[in-house]
Design brief:
The structure is a homotetramer. Chain A is α/β, with parallel strands linked by helices and about 260 residues long. Chain A has 8 helices and 13 strands.
Chain lengths: ~260, ~260, ~260, ~260
């Protein structure tokens, strides 16, 4: 049994993480840290059956002998938590985003010197990570490739970060794409927004959450790789995968890809 | 048994039409007209089992007592053929495109005065006609609607005519759409080309022919209506439907919609 | 402004309904009835901003002058509520399922004699209702048709009720389907379960909620009509539609179809 | 420039192969072998621009110095052709199916001793091969997985061989699947046909050719991998890939997977 503590346990993602850890047969939730909810019982945050009091700081992780700490908080808190984990020998699984390259460099060094390891990933949605990887692997065998991403109609930026990253990886994997045949774009924008030459189309649709389809074509056939996610629980399988593997991956691991062995 | 003649029988669409008529149990192919192939046997055009010699002009239709003539030719020829049908009392089913509003007005008058009727339609793909109609019928019950069309990578215009017409009909059917949430379009064009406010996205893909999906969303759900066509044979069910109904629809009928009773 | 009361306001669907009514600009939530939660403030049920105390019985609807009552409860309670609405002149919108044909006959009579009307529907998911209607309308123009339904992996029956009803309506709309070509079913069941001759395929998938696709084919083309729903909120657009129309539809209306005008 | 000869050049696949080789910039079609069409010009088989006379036997390949021979013929002919290639030092790319394990063992030995190599594959549709591989790679990360395959309505067996093989590979890649929740199958067969525990659903649809979708689900998300093929030209990218690589892959290579480097 791996002993797991959760930073930011009272946040929206933190509570989801607590539930996922509690429900996993090979993990045990031993600490919930959250300065904003310190002292209350975890059940008051809607997480039943854990019998834990929320702690105010990371010392609790040492007191209860946590093997791994999970951090989905905010940038300032996460920076401190990651440093604390390296210094105190607790493995870290981190989904908080926004670290600078300098900070990631610092973390790489400190975990190289620590008895603990870390997995820091901008995207724990395992299906999305696989979709990107498969799109990249397939790209060299196709002549055309485009991306269609669908999100709820409260998303203010387009395309999504995942779509941009997918396009970049497809472009890096193959430079040999058929030219765009379009000579007349009757409705400007119809052919999408190009990211390194790969057309990306963003749909904003009520009733949807986060979805993306990569379509690749070559003579007589197409291959479509589609990821649909419906809520925050989509992050959990990737988080648990990282918790199970972090102990065996020396130093700092960036992104889920290395954990998938692809 | 309805007796059918085909104008432009040696053309690509004409040959397809000859085959479809020949294969229909309730129709008999009685005349193949094509000045460019006059005098040869129809089997030399790859249409087996008809035992017909290609005729040079429309007189053949009268000689063999054709009930209906089908025209998929070019604009100049089609104009003459339609006039001839009205004047000579032969029902006309016409898929040639490009008639002016004035010409369509003239045809409406001449078929009103004729013993024959006509169906003239820009699109005989029955599934596409149904898709457009359903999108229009559904539009008032949804808050967001977008169109994604996919064509082979030799198509030089975007969006397709069908996509533009679908958007126009959806916009006419409902003016109550949620506002576009996009504030930042990182890759310009990602949100598609707007046709009367409906975003249209055009994919150009090797290995595809002609496909379109209309996606509509409202709280908690989406409805998607998709048409896929793979080759020219997709026109045939609509052509046969028109041949079967043209005798019962007085005067000129424009488009397949009235024949579908929706 | 239409004044709306909700039976079973403390139930899972009841609370969803309360929220949807409260958020609709042309409706006002005037009464929440629920004997199991009588006397508490609606905000304690997680519905903010309504300033209502939960009432123990239907008399409240008369006291506050409700125009329409919505019932998503259980069969025994719903039976009483519907009778009460007919007797007391309050329009009823009812999503509770399981009424016998005899009971529906009784309701038809009592609402014919009442100043109030009723809409009783087994399925308020507007997109699913449209999907079924479109499948039925399209059926006569296609040679093959099959249904694929996808649900979460806690659903214990297959196919879903919606899939069975869709197949029945397609079969009633057309008896002219191409024969099944299958001579050898290597894995028994691969060709699905037939409902009145229409093959139905049921997928049970973690990460999904409730989805159905109807695929229809004829020469050279297919038409696919797909409904995806992600949670209970999918019922709300149909409920609100019924609330807005019930006053204008004399007597008892069964199902959403008549309200859609298709 | 690689010099390519084609066995069975007058067959349906043979002609397609001749065209694909002729159109590839880095390949040159130097020989067309077909005893049934020996002596006629290749243009009479509908392959323009090659200026070749069809040869009656394999000696032609040596006379013109072919590097690679492609075989899409029938089992008896293919057996002889493969042996001839090994004996005469001409690389072989073979899509003919039906070899016994003994024969494949014999070929492995003879190509190990030959200066020539061979690629023998039951499926040259590159997109289908990638789909199967991705399904296998993804399987361990998901709790549920099902296969839906769509074919034209002249296919007499179900499921397709590709679907069966995909299921076998998914089952071999993961033994940890959630149990089927179905307790009541109202329409027997609705839950599909199980292949090593993976449900497979076969749709037979007019207007389709050959399509397959693998759907995988885990908490909050699904991953779908879909291959659509529209005609025989779908084999060509895989054939050309094999022609380009066969010279560098010592001995006998079975299947396209090793060529894709995945």
């Amino acid at each position: 049994m791996t002993r797991v503590g959760v930073f930011g346990a009272g946040g929206r993602m933190g509570r989801e993480v607590c539930r996922a850890v509690k429900d996993a047969a090979d993990l045990v939730l031993v600490a919930a840290v959250d300065p904003f909810h310190a002292g209350i019982d975890l059940s008051q945050l809607g997480i039943e059956g854990a019998d834990l009091t929320v702690a105010s700081g990371p010392q609790e992780l040492l007191d209860v002998g946590a093997d791994v700490a999970i951090d989905f908080t905010v940038l300032d808190a996460a920076r401190d938590n990651v440093r604390w984990c390296a210094a105190n020998g607790v493995h870290a699984v981190v989904g908080t985003t926004g670290f600078s390259d300098d900070e990631l460099g610092e973390f790489a060094k400190s975990f190289a010197d620590s008895s603990a390891n870390a997995v820091i990933a901008p995207n724990f949605t395992i299906g999305a990570v696989l979709m990107m990887r498969f799109a990249e692997l397939a790209a060299p065998y196709f002549d055309t490739g485009e991306i269609i991403e669908y999100h709820h109609d409260r998303k203010i930026d387009a395309p999504s970060g995942t779509a941009v990253m997918t396009a970049q990886r497809m472009a890096a994997a193959s430079s040999d794409w058929a030219p765009d045949p379009t000579e007349k774009e009757v409705a400007p924008g119809a052919r999408g927004g190009a990211v390194q030459g790969i057309p990306v189309h963003s749909i904003r649709m009520r009733g949807m959450f986060a979805h993306q389809e990569v379509v690749l074509g070559v003579a007589g056939q197409t291959l479509s790789i589609r990821h649909d996610s419906f809520d925050r629980s989509a992050y959990m399988p990737g988080v648990l995968l990282a918790v199970r593997q972090v102990g065996d991956r020396a130093g700092l691991t960036l992104g889920l890809d290395p954990l998938l062995g692809l």
